[in-house]
Amino acid sequence: MYIVRCTSFFLLFLLLPLVTLPIQRFPKPEFETNYTQPSTQIPVPRAELLAYLDVLVLLVALALVSWLVLKKRSRLWVFAMSVFSLAYFGFYREGCVCSIGSIQNVSLALFDHSFVLPLTVLLFFLLPLVFTLFFGRTFCAAVCPFGAIQDLVAFKPQSLGSRLNTVLGIIPYLYLGLAVLFAATGTDFIICRYDPFVGIFRFNASFGMFLFTGILLLSGVFIARPYCRFLCPYGVLLNWTSRFSRRHLTITPKECIQCRLCENSCPYDAIDFPVTDKSPESRPLMVKKMMMLTVLVPFLVLIFGYTGSRMQDTLAGVDYRVKLAKEVMALSKMQDAKAGSREPGAGSRKQVQDDSFEIKAYKASGKTESQVYSEASAVLKKFYLGGWLFGGFTGLVIAMLIAGRMLPVYRKDYVTNKGRCFSCARCTDYCPIKS
Amino acid sequence: MPGRREFLNTLMRGGILAALGLLSGAVIFRSRDGKSCSYGFDCSGCSRSKSCMLPAALEARQTVWQLDMTKCIQCGRCATNCVMSPSAVKCTHAFAMCGYCDLCGGYFKPGTKILTTAAENQLCPTNALKRKFIEDPFFEYTIDEELCIGCGKCVKGCGAFGNGSLQLQVRHDRCKNCNECSIARNCPSQAFTRVPANKPSLMRGLGKERPGTAAKKGGVDA
Predict the structure, then answer these.
(1) Over the stretch B140-183, which tens digit does the pLDDT of each residue have?
(2) What is the DSSP code string of A102-156?
(3) Which of A83, A193, A247, B137 could make a disulfide contact with B102, Cβ separation 3.0–4.6 Å?
(4) Nearest to B163 among A22, A356, A358 (CB)
(5) Least Cα separation, residue A409 to chain B (angstroms)
(6) What distance in Å separates residue B152's CA from the closest CA in chain A?
């Protein structure tokens, strides 16, 4: 029996299969001694109930912070809550799954019907948005661990000025568009991939990521909450919903007395100063502006949309199916060149790695070349449409920002900018009027 | 003036709420060709998979990452691409289908002449695979999980020459269950899938049935 085993061992050595399916080559021995076979230990994952507990903690935290911001108006308590959130959602839960990342799960679930979207992830996506719709961005104030960790280091915040704020403020829109595009096509979850803080929460950041986080936190000393303001894609959604919030943090509980004490209190440049110059713009000028906008908006949308669709190849290039198709194509070209011309230089000129793991896996999977190509072309098609949508969205965002700056404003008091305000309640301490 | 603005705000708020409701409705009640179901069976094995009208929300249980050995080519990236160090993927031994071979393809380097536990004979780079004599000619192989780095060298050897009882699996006591698994992103054969948390294992050959049949059936309950 032993010899049979040995020979089969060496016979099989010649036929090294790539995908190794379990085959009962050797029967299970019948032991003569009283040997008991150990059982295979399979650890169970974190209990599902705990995921619902996380949602409950999120709900309670959101409600509590909303109350602290709107009713108690206490910066100290909001700060205490942000420390708790940093400890719970950050260091205990280690950042996954977070509301920011859940954008991708929801967009993938919309387009890929085989993708299972857990109810808890959907709730993580929805709850902060619904709360923001009623109470402002209290999620940002002290529930999101990302905001909390940056709030802790914002020692010497400087004002960036409205122009720089507007220009840098475009980045989150681009990030959101790209994240949704890549998630919906099933390519990648870029928000999770370039998540700067999860490595801190888990104490295992890679060097590059650690460097990025370090720069972010160091610059965060002077530019308060750089991720929240100039990167966070979920912040875009919260910004939109917060503009229409039912209630929102106000600087003063009663009438503003124009004392200007709160003027420099906001580290995030989210206080809008009064614009009392109420000289009505001349009618011809307004008509001119209006006409410019009606031309500008569609023009920008179309031009950016077209540019986006032209970026189809670049964008789709990071998709694993497109990458594989490229490799397979290069491989078959190389083989054709080898078979066609016997010139020694023909094959070796284009060095294609025919032994890359991707090619090995492709050969083992038994897929045909045309299958790989058709999969890749389907992805490319998605990216063509996605490129149009992403580009158009970018154009629309830029057009709207321009429009926003063109329209006349009139403001009597110092008020929080409902879109950008994180409801951190710092400004309330500066207001001399107490209720 | 404030009246009109207030009205528009309310209108927009209602619109956004409706949009969010539509979005979650679309995600929850969409038609699906799901792979997994909270009732604990695969669609392929389910008698009512054709007529199943369950909304996706009912099957939207927690998911965890797992490695499908039918696709795995043992490239070794599990060992290096996990956010955990050492990797959360480790070799797991399905004793029920092990042949207890003296000449173990997962333990010895190919071409080993003298079958001893000497370090130069061993395939495992970290000495995580332990060999213990049971009775002539059978040997028991166990994995020291603390030492295993999930490189899959033994898995490759066992699958190529033996029964395939050594299998790579995500160990869920170590796995952080990242929203997007960093190994899955780099897996050349797309062997990483999300599986229902109540059926976290994709190991084969654990049950009482003959291992030859278990290979075809897919997931086996632990």
Answers:
(1) 999 999 999 999 999 999 988 888 899 999 999 999 889 999 99
(2) HHHHHHHHHH-TT----HHHHHHHHHHHHHHHHH-SHHHHHT-HHHHHHHHH-SS
(3) B137
(4) A22
(5) 14
(6) 11
